[in-house]
Predict the 3D structure of the following.
Amino acid sequence: MTSDITIKTLRLSKAYGHFKAVDQISFEVYAGEIFGFLGANGAGKTTAMRMLCGLLEPSSGEASVAGFDVYRRPEAIKKRIGYMSQKFSLYEDLTILENIRFFGGIYGLTYAQIREKGKLLTAELGLEAQAHSLVGSLPLGWKQKLAFSVAVLHDPKIVFLDEPTGGVDPITRRQFWDLIYAAAARGVTIFVTTHYMDEAEYCDRVSIMVDGRMVAMNSPEQLKLQYKAGSMEEVFYQLARKAQRSD
Amino acid sequence: MKIILFLLEKEFKQIFRNKALLPMLLGVPLIQLIILPLAADYEIKNINVAFVDHDRTTYSHRLVEKIKATGYFKMTGYSTTYREADRLIELDRADLVLEIPSQFENTLIREGKGHLFLAVNAINGTKASVGASYLSRIIADFNADIRFQQQQESSKTRRGRIAIQTSNWYNPHMDYKYFMVPGILAFLVTMIGGYMSALNIVKEKEIGTIEQINVSPISKHHFIIGKLIPFWLISMVVFSIGQFIVSRYLYHIIPVGNIFLLYLFLAIYLVAILGFGLLVSTYTDTQQQAMSVAFFFVMIFLLMSGLFTSVDSMPPWARAFAYLNPVTYFIEVMRGVVLKGSTFNDFQGHLVKMVGFALALNTWAWFNYRKTS
């Protein structure tokens, strides 16, 4: 792991009226690490992530992603990141290859690159037989794996994953994490939110958000020591139980 | 440029794959074009008229026969008391009541004048006013006939007589279909273009795919152009089928003017209308909202475009609205080119305004579409 900083925030906030969805969070993410972003529903994880992706303008504070400021250069950030939203957002009425072609195309890949990526991805996911079937007909687990592969299609520096394994069976979750490890091994920084505490154990470092604030950030081992807990699950319970708001 | 090709490829695949969309886009407007002009006919027929004839003489019979013979009127009552006819109006079985007084023939011959009473059921305003004016014309004609006859019988006095001969230019037979079909076609294209572009983009918001677009480095104008071109082409196709198949073979309307001029205007007009749809989509989040907002404006566009009622006879405030409505201009161009053979010189001002609408609506939409919210 190198110590290059790819994401840096300083008192980053997002307020809707009096409601502080994200309340002055400051953290750094290093290049090539798997950074887990934990928190209960409504803790502000998605809002924070959307600000970092250039989808949402922060109310105050600073943030830079891949060396670009989120206020001034959101489009420059977008070239260098991949994003997989909580809601499945590939086109269900297009086939696997057509989705790859379209998203490859709008990220500026050449036709040759797209063809090559298409072959590579379908082989990697074991979806060669389904390459020409509509994405809408795939089971959820496969859709999620495909969405991840499309998010890293253009070899981004950082990939943001918003609850990528929600509703997915344990075996597919394991396979999904294999994909994440493979991408991390290629040097891609992974920024992932999750509810599954076993997944938190897979991360290099995790942060825990409660009520819009970041209450803990360290490696899973350190956190367990610090809170004298046997598992990340216990750490999470100790912290998240203090939450005031719920959805 | 290449990015637009990828966008177009994706849009067309989705459009052709959607089993309901294409038949709806092509079929619905054409069916409407076949049905609507038949109904949207200002020529009033089957006006129910009840006669109250207190006179019952040759003259009164001749008048009644003359009215019936025109074919516009249907006699639903012939009575000798007004009360009976009044009842027919109440029952909505008569639109007009013509009362012929007793001694009608006598006074007409002896004194050279006669009075008739016409009662109009004005609930259906158009039918009543048109019916009353038809009837007045027939009576005037009847009047002229009698005078002419009397003059011949006793050619002592030769009084001058003014006859008016009307000729309907550009539509000699005053066939309302010639007038309505181009207008309705213009309007159908407006509806297709406006709704389609609004709904399509909002649908991407609804299913969440827009998020994946917004997080990519794609530029706003590429995305907008990629969305507009498919609907622009489909609207062109709908228009062409309406013009060259339905109008031509069903209504036998062959444009008098230059068809390329029509297409020049159509091309720019569609950009304006698609821009309107786009603008609606930037302000709404669900297809339901987009549909309601688009419907609201399309209704106003429709009623204030001069399609059914003349813009010139609107009150000043409404006229101001009508001239802020791109549909007004396109309907004028359609009718001008198709019926009158208007040339480019006649519509230079319209061209400038249409380009203005196209630029304004699309620029507004471009500004209001935010990849970063």
Observations:
- The longest strand of chain B covers residues 47-53.
